[in-house]
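[job 4471] stage=fold_predict status=RUNNING
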Amino acid sequence: MKLAVLALLVISVQLTGPFTAQKATASDSCGVKAALISKTIGLVPGKRNWNNFIPLKHVDGSYAAQLNCSGPDGMSMHFLSGGNPSPGWYQQDANGLEILTHLQRAVILNGINQCVQKARADIGEVASIKGKKITVLCRVEENDRSVVLWIPERPRPQ
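[job 4471] inference complete, writing structure tokens
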């Protein structure tokens, strides 16, 4: 029996600026990030909602991701797969994560893979991978096998 996997990526980045319920625009940093990530991975940014999230949807309107404009850890990215994510799904998300982390896809994918494998070995517990370039925290949920990942932003190299 196949278990459906629901994967959620949470990418944390710092953000400054007040909350306003508006469509993502180039006039605010969260809107700029949402538009750039959407364009890079083929999604459509929606209107910022009451809890300061900008949904990123597929062209058909189905949910794909959301950008939290101001959470306890600053800006964060949440990706959601509909079932067991394929390698292509991880690759697409890594393309968007390059924008937030300023890291190469291979580094991002390696960190995510290491963390998810560690978390699957200990269902329900938080796993972490801390490297020189990337830190990944993740958890695989016991009931639905959903995967939660958190990757902090790295400053743009000078």
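[job 4471] summary: The chain has a mean pLDDT of 75.
[job 4471] exit 0
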